[in-house]
Write the structure tokens for this entry.
Amino acid sequence: MTRLPRPLIPLTIPLLLGACALLAPSATGHEPASHARAAARPTAHAASRYQVGVGDEYPEMFGNQLWQQLHAKIARYIAPYDAVAHRDSLARATAWIRAGEEQHVQMLVAFYHSGHTPTRLPSVALYKRDVEKFVKRFPNVRQYQAWDEANRGNIPHYLSSPSARTTAQYYQALRRVCTTCTVIGLDLLDQDKIGPTLEYISEFKREVGRLHTVMPGIWGLHDYSDVNRLQSWRTREVSRALGGQVWLTETGGIVQFGGAFPNRHGSGLSRAARVLSYTLNLGASYSRIKRVYLYNWTGGVNSSRFDAGLTDSRHRPRVGYVVVCRRLHGTKCNVRVSSR
């Protein structure tokens, strides 16, 4: 449920309106009975099984003492596939990557639609040309995803998403321009009903086979629909369909998301904290999960439609941040919590 880079923020309102139904809690608040066992609350243990990092688009995160207190070694950034072709997109990517380099962070970059022509998908040749320039410009970035939330679908006049077949071709192109990089296979949004997601995975794999390209060993998943219901069955079913290692490349507790997840009198803050605790437990208890990128760092204001920040809009720690910090570092995290 990506908050888009700054020039794309006007697109997020209609985008989120369409996505709201995907995240809205079910009428009963529970998963189907057939999945009850799979959705049992995971128990935290062996936290060293996975790494925890943060996804965010703003370089100020790296200079924040609260972020540094987490001692996170991984972070994720979403870049337009054609960032090198546009001065504004390139400047933002450069600022973020340089800030990450200063903190010696291992950076994962997910390519996404253009910030200037978001409804126009590139040809495979154009995609390959632009991402190759990006890879050469930033030699310290060695981990990539071909397309962020590839299965999101199209939103007329605002956003286009590639078919599974096209995403497989982008994946192959990215592997070819950076043969020494780790290229994550797919980057998926779980969605409430996972049938279309499973179909997308099958089609992607068929196309990878047809292209005679190496099948990915690491896959990306955004499991907002699951964990924000305090459920895990979607994550597990999608992970089994993917196979191999899974990185939760976006996940976390939603503080505010339209009418589905309101933040009345601060209720969203405590709800998000419970979700974050659940998510970290899931990462510890499910052996397929090797990385968890919490999204995102800086929260919004009361009027924001989507807000999942670990800190508030003034960079003060929320209770969700404390949950994460104490899970990673115990009582060493002594911070005053913001009520916003």
Q: What stands out?
A: Confidence is low (pLDDT under 50) at residues 2-22, 24-40, 42-47. The CA atoms of residues 299 and 313 lie 5 Å apart.
